[in-house]
């Protein structure tokens, strides 16, 4: 592993014993397809499971007053692709990923799905390198604030809106990015919220997740005010 990846290890808060695990965790499937090397998909699969377990344990320890529903909603808010991509962006993980030419040219280093998958792959690699306790410690480091003070996670307008519209309209809301502006380090996302074919509201924010939450908040208020 090159010396430069030591910067990534320092940012992650974990130093690998088997450096090849980190190398594979950074290989997106598009890179593997072009180089015939192993990619990070199986690591992602493992990391997803370990993340759910680690978050569940951390949340139960931090919030013994929460019931099963509270814990489920909080975990869903913290472990979804949008939030994981935000965590990956805070770690500058995108710059270390190894992508194929197509993904590189289409902005793959800032794609939500690629960032989220890359983060989960890293966790899977840590688990293989040192086991659950080491992985849990890394998850705790990255999610400590969100678990301890989950105001944003508990105020999950997307989940609340989905429950409301499924109950009142028998339909699930959908979200579509309509515009992305700004440089890589200061992106702004605009998102349209639809119920079926009908546009309901728009939201904007510094990530797709935040824009969707804003649209859901506005849409929920409009629907409830109109009692529709």
What structural class is derived from the secondary structure elements?
mainly alpha
Question: Could you state the CATH homologous superfamily of the largest domain?
Answer: Ribonuclease III domain
Largest sheet: 3 strands, antiparallel
- SSE succession: HHHHHHHHHHHEEEH
Helix coverage percent: 55-70%
CATH architecture of the largest domain: Orthogonal Bundle
CATH topology of the largest domain: Ribonuclease iii, N-terminal Endonuclease Domain, Chain A
Query: For the record, what CATH class of the largest domain applies?
Result: Mainly Alpha
Say how many strands there are: 3
**How do the strands line up in the largest sheet?**
1-2-3
Q: Identify the quaternary structure here.
A: single chain
Number of helices: 12
Shape verdict: globular
How large is the share of residues in beta strands? 5-15%
Task: Explain the overall architecture.
The chain is mainly alpha-helical and 228 residues long. It folds into 2 domains: 5-153, Orthogonal Bundle (Ribonuclease iii, N-terminal Endonuclease Domain, Chain A); 157-226, Double Stranded RNA Binding Domain, CATH 3.30.160.20. It is 62% helix and 11% strand. It is built from 12 helices and 3 strands, in the order αααααααααααβββα. The chain has a 3-stranded antiparallel sheet. The protein starts with a helix and ends with a helix. The mean pLDDT is 88.
């Amino acid at each position: 592993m090159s010396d430069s990846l030591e910067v990534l290890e320092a940012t992650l808060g974990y130093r690998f014993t088997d450096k090849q695990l980190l190398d594979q965790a950074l290989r997106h499937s598009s890179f593997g397809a072009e180089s015939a090397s192993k990619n990070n998909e199986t690591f992602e699969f493992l990391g997803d499971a370990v993340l759910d377990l680690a978050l569940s344990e951390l949340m139960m320890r931090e919030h013994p007053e929460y019931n099963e529903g509270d814990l489920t909603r909080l975990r869903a808010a913290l472990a979804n692709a949008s939030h994981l991509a935000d965590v990956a962006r805070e770690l500058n993980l995108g710059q270390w990923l190894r992508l194929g030419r197509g993904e590189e040219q289409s902005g793959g280093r800032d794609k939500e799905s690629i960032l989220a998958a890359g983060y989960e792959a890293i966790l899977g690699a840590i688990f293989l390198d040192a086991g659950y306790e080491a992985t849990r410690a890394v998850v705790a480091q990255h999610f400590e604030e969100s678990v301890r003070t989950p105001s944003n996670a508990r105020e999950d307008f997307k989940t609340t809106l989905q429950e409301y519209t499924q109950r009142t309209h028998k339909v699930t809301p959908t979200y579509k990015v309509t515009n992305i502006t700004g440089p890589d380090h200061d992106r702004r996302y605009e998102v349209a919220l639809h119920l079926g074919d009908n546009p309901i509201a728009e939201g904007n924010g510094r990530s797709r997740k935040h824009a969707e939450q804003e649209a859901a908040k506005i849409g929920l208020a409009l629907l409830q005010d109109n009692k529709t």
